[in-house]
């Protein structure tokens, strides 16, 4: 059976919206075995974002939106890191030594980039182009992730967090809607900061001026079908409503808190750029 670096989900490209899931899967090509890890390590967050594939598929179904998911474990190479990021290929992750990643020759690193990392990003770029061409407007990108309930022995209080850099067109209205839900603890750039240079949304959203948001759901809340359905039922109507806003489909360059935006990925705006402090 062939191993695909990118898994595409069909949908209505005319909606102007598509989903991504960088850490949806824990699979490795057969020739990599288990990278020297015990099998149980692939049940943990170090291998993939627990619950994200199911949530992405359910959101895509409810929204009738296309999606693209990485088909490989982040232990092989992390598609949500820049090519020059030292955590691109992890050798130690949350106490687990990844023997298959050490030592890492320059040739093997480039092999993984060519076979897995770059084809996944090419799939996102192609989907973005198709959404834009079909809908006639700039795409709105929703990245789906999940985070561990505990980190370094400390409980994380958030049920969901939204990550962003300087473009809050989608984040602000989604934060407002989530915070209106009784009992939800919602993180704003928690549990992580959304300004990460050359990560997936930096490349495909920030640099191109496309509206985007990264949603992080706590893993214990989407670890089973009941939780997935609950969160899909909550998020899908919110995303559909936000997608209907004209501001989600205009190219605007906000820049990045990480520094000047790379010209390599930048797309010229069709309207005057807006810069916010």
TrEMBL record:
SUPFAM superfamilies: Zn-dependent exopeptidases
Protein name: N-formylglutamate amidohydrolase
Renumbered residue ranges of the record's region Disordered: 256-277
Coiled coil: none
Pfam families: FGase
Domain of life: Bacteria
């Amino acid at each position: 059976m062939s191993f695909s670096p990118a898994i595409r989900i069909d949908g209505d490209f005319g909606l102007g919206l598509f989903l991504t899931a960088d850490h949806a899967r824990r699979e490795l090509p057969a020739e990599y075995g288990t990278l020297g890890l015990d099998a149980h390590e692939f049940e943990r967050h170090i291998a993939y974002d627990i619950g994200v594939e199911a949530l992405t598929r359910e959101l895509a179904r409810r929204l009738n939106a296309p999606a693209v998911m990485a088909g490989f474990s982040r232990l092989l190479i992390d598609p949500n890191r820049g090519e020059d990021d030292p955590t691109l290929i992890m050798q130690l992750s949350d106490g687990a030594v990844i023997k298959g990643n050490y030592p890492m020759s320059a040739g093997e690193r480039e092999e993984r980039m060519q076979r897995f990392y770059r084809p996944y990003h090419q799939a996102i770029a192609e989907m973005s182009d198709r959404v834009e061409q079909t809908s006639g407007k700039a795409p709105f990108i929703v990245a789906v992730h999940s985070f561990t309930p505990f980190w370094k022995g400390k409980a994380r209080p958030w049920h969901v967090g939204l990550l962003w850099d300087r473009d809050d067109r989608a984040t602000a209205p989604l934060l407002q809607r989530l915070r209106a839900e009784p009992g939800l603890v919602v993180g704003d750039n928690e549990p992580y900061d959304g300004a990460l240079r050359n990560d997936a949304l930096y490349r495909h959203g920030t640099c191109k001026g496309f509206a985007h948001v990264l949603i992080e759901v706590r893993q214990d809340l989407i670890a089973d079908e009941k939780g997935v359905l609950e969160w899909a039922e909550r998020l899908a109507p919110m995303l559909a409503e936000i997608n209907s806003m004209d501001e989600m489909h205009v190219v605007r360059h906000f820049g990045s808190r990480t520094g000047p935006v790379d010209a390599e990925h930048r797309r010229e705006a069709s309207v005057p750029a807006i810069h916010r402090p």
